[in-house]
Amino acid sequence: MKQHTFINLMKPVQDKMYRLALRLLVSKEAAEDATQEVMLKLWSRKEKLSSYNNVEAFAMTVTKNHCLDQLKLKQNNNLRIVHSNYECGESSLQHKVEVQDDLNWVQKIISNLPEQQKILIQLREVEQYEYEEIAEMTEMNETAIRVALSRARKKIREEMLKRHRYGIKSN
């Protein structure tokens, strides 16, 4: 495989790889390093890439595994979630502040989820992968993915409701 063929094949996937790495490692620098490392790994396997049914799923799996290895090595102790994909039109400053505050709370809640649920939330809710693709990437069955996502969403919903009801007495 020639360099330009590899670049054309991997360019559309590279942003997704970075976003997954950012979700797991949180530090922009660590995510950039991880993406670069994975690209090097994929380049070293360039001749074998054509044998994979879904190169994108393979690249995402390699990225996930690399990031989890980095976390296990505890090289990234300064981790915090910084992922905001939200843009809204013209709205009041108060509304923008409230939305940003809610996003920060959701990110904080997600950061406290188990690793598996964090990965699944990133792949399904942020990257918009189908369950079948996620199953291929994570080597989980679709039912387990749906259950884990349901639990993660429920936890996020419960924590946000707690936050919004704080100080309000119910009769």
UniProtKB/TrEMBL annotation:
InterPro entries: RNA_pol_sigma-70-like (IPR039425), RNA_pol_sigma-70_dom (IPR014284), RNA_pol_sigma70_r2 (IPR007627), RNA_pol_sigma70_r4_t2 (IPR013249), RNA_pol_sigma_r2 (IPR013325), RNA_pol_sigma_r3/r4-like (IPR013324), WH-like_DNA-bd_sf (IPR036388). It holds the Pfam family Sigma70_r2. Residues 104-156 form the RNA polymerase sigma factor 70 region 4 type domain. The keyword Glycosyltransferase does not apply. Keywords: DNA-binding, Sigma factor, Transcription, Transcription regulation. It comes from the Bacteria. Residues 11-72 form the RNA polymerase sigma-70 region domain. PANTHER family: RNA POLYMERASE ECF-TYPE SIGMA FACTO, RNA POLYMERASE SIGMA FACTOR HI_1459-RELATED. Belongs to the sigma-70 factor family. ECF subfamily. This is RNA polymerase sigma factor. The lineage of its organism: Bacteria, Pseudomonadati, Bacteroidota, Flavobacteriia, Flavobacteriales.
